[in-house]
Structure formats: structure tokens, C-alpha cells
Amino acid sequence: MPPRGRGPKDVGDCVNVKAQTKRFFVWDAYWDTARLQSFDLEGKPGAISALGQYWASVAQSLPQGASVLDLGCGHGAASLALLAAGSKATITAIDEANIDPVRYLPEKAAQLSRITFRPRVQMEELPFEDMSFDAVVSQFGIEFGPLPKTATEIARVLKPGGFMAALVLPYNSEAVQEARIALKQCRYLLTEAKLFETAITMLQAYHQAPPDVQEPQMQAALDQFRKTVEDAFAKFSEKEINVLSVIVNALYQVFGNRKTATEQDQIFAIESARTHLAHYAARAQDTARSAVDINMTALRGALVAAGIQLSDARPMQAQGYKGLVAYQLFGRKLAKPPQQQPAAGA
User: Fold this and answer.
1) What are the distances in angstroms from CA 113 to CA 75, 87, 100?
2) Domain ranges in the chain?
3) Share of the chain residues as helix, strand and coil, in percent rounded to the nearest 5
């Protein structure tokens, strides 16, 4: 389905998303589906079990009647796991995307109704009063925001002694490895291969040609297009052609409809496919860039500087899952923020 909102203006926007407003739209498209977990974890039961066990342990740490804030919530996977573990907390969940969990997960409507979802809210600009929450949680969320600002906001909205619990994306996880592979293909398709441009030119020529030469002309163009596709596939290994295969199949489907669809509709279909790919590329880029290194250096530093003392920071593994599922973090807000070191020469 076409993503809501406007798409990137050009290929530069597609593969190097810089503006926060553009981030909104590319993640809108991601959550315009009936997914609960990020990164296709639904099909990995070992990972789902490990995540559930973690949130069950966090639920046990919540005080009676706790108020909880879920950052980068998506469709509420972490919040639902807390409730499933028996938590009676009051949960507010925010995401910068235009999320609508009940619409896409109606079978979970009863559980989701216990959570207050707030779309279009940025982690680095939380619209909540100081010391509003007993706990802040996040599952594959906080690492996607600007770390120093996000950490400062987490500390600001936490009550004294309140805690932060988070699962963050490791640099060597399956999700990140797949994102890097996908991004390589996306960049090639969007900036080098010219398959979209070639397809549009072929269809324009077909629809504008006299009826008696349309098919012979198109068959000749298709023969040349197949050679271009073969050259494109040759640039990647068999394990690196998933995105390329999807796009090529989509273009051939458009070609196959040439006798029944209008020129305008076919060109729109190709442009829509290119926009979908551009959004996918931006998400893959965001995922690869946001992944956390083994020492969690930047994340640890931002949290400690904001006044959150970490008591747990370790990797999470799961049966049947290659690499790490997540790094798990747990820390409490200090009663007093750490003293800032005086500047040199002061």
C-alpha cells in the first residue's frame, strides 16, 4: 500500500535521510502493517521467548500502581509484555511514527486499550512534566533517537529513584546484518541500476506507438531489459538478492499488465514501487546506523551523564537466533545529577 504522507523528494533523500520530518514518513510505512515486533521477530520463537522473559523480570521491579513510559513503542510490544507478565501499571507509549495499534492488531484490542498511545512524539522532546514516571522502558527504540537529548529527557521525566529498562539493537544482530545487505541493494537500485527509469521509458514508448508495432517493439525492449537485469543480479551473491528480486518481479508484473492498464496507471505503479524502496532504504540505513557497539560506549556515556546509574548492561541471546537478540540495560535515576567537570582553564 502507498505510505501515508509525502515521499522523499529525490534519490538523495531516499538514501540519506537527514530531516526529522522525513523520518516520520519512512517509519509510518513500517507500522502500516499488522506487525507487533520489530525486525520480523514474530517468526523467531526463541527471540520472542527471551524478550518476554526480560520484560517479565522488569514487571516484577515495578512498584504498585506504577506509571510507565514506553519510548519508541511501535505497536506496543514492550508494553504488552509488561501487561502479560501481570503488571497493573499505567502505561503511556510514544512513537514518532503515526502509529495506530488497534487498527492493525484488532485481535489485541482489549490489551491495547490499557495503554495510552501517543503518535508523533519524539523521544528527545517529551511532552511530560518533570518526574512524571516511575519507569521508562524501550524495546529497540532509544538507540534510534539522538542519544544525549534522549537520555536527558529520560532522566527528566523519571521520578527520583525511578528506573530505566531497555533492550537495544546490537551491531551484530541478524536485523542489522540484513539491513546492511538490503541497503547495499537499495542504493544500487536507486542510484545506479536505472531499472525504474528504463521501465518507464519502455512503457511510454509502448503506449505511444502505433498498435501494429507495440508488441514487437516491446518484446525487443524486454529482451534488452532482461540483459540489464542479469547484469544487476551478477553484482550480488545469491544471499544478497532478496530486495533486487522483489523489485524486478514487481516491474515484470507492471509490464504484464500493459494491455489492460493505462500508461498513467503503470507509471504510477512504478513510481510507487520506487518510493516504497526509498523508504525501505531509509529504514535500513537508520537501523544500521543506530545499532549499538559491544561496549555500548555512546549509550552508556549519555545515560550516565544524564544522571542514570546503570546496574545491568549485558548481551541477550536466544535459542535458534544467530548473533545477539539485544543488549539489555537497567539503571536508576540518581537523587542528584552528576557534577559537571569544569572546563579546562576555568
Assistant:
1) 12, 14, 12
2) 33-171+292-333, 175-288
3) 55, 15, 30
CA nearest to 13, candidates 243, 244, 277:
277
What pLDDT shows up at residue 19? 38
Top-level CATH class of 33-171+292-333? alpha beta
Rounded distance between C-alpha atoms, residue 93 and residue 116, angstroms = 6
Distance, CA of 153 to CA of 48 (rounded, Å): 29
| Contact present, 169 and 141 (Cβ < 8 Å) | no
Planar angle of CA 122, 127, 129, nearest 5 degrees: 140
List the alpha helices (DSSP H) in the chain.
11-15, 20-31, 45-61, 77-84, 101-104, 109-112, 147-157, 174-188, 195-208, 211-234, 242-256, 263-290, 297-306
The pLDDT tens digits for 282-306 are 999 999 999 999 889 999 999 999 9
Cβ contact 251:195 at 8 Å: yes
What pLDDT is attached to residue 13? 40
- Phi, psi angle pair for 126, to nearest 5°: -75, 130
Contact (Cβ atoms closer than 8 angstroms) between residue 44 and residue 83: no
- 155 and 180 Cβ atoms separated by less than 8 Å: no
pLDDT of residue 23: 59
Q: Which residues of the chain have pLDDT under 50?
A: 1-21, 341-346
Provide φ and ψ at 314, rounded to 5°: -150, 165
Query: Which amino acid type is present at position 199?
Result: A
pLDDT at 118: 97
Burial of 113 (0-12, 13-18, 19+ CB in 10 A): exposed
d(CA 206, CA 263): 9
Query: Residues 202, 225: contact at Cβ < 8 Å?
Result: yes
- Residue 91 pairs with which residues in a beta bridge? 68, 115
C-alpha cell read off for 109: 484490542
Neighbours of 69 (CB within 10 A): 29
* pLDDT tens per residue across span 60-111: 999 999 999 999 999 999 999 999 999 999 999 999 999 999 999 999 999 9
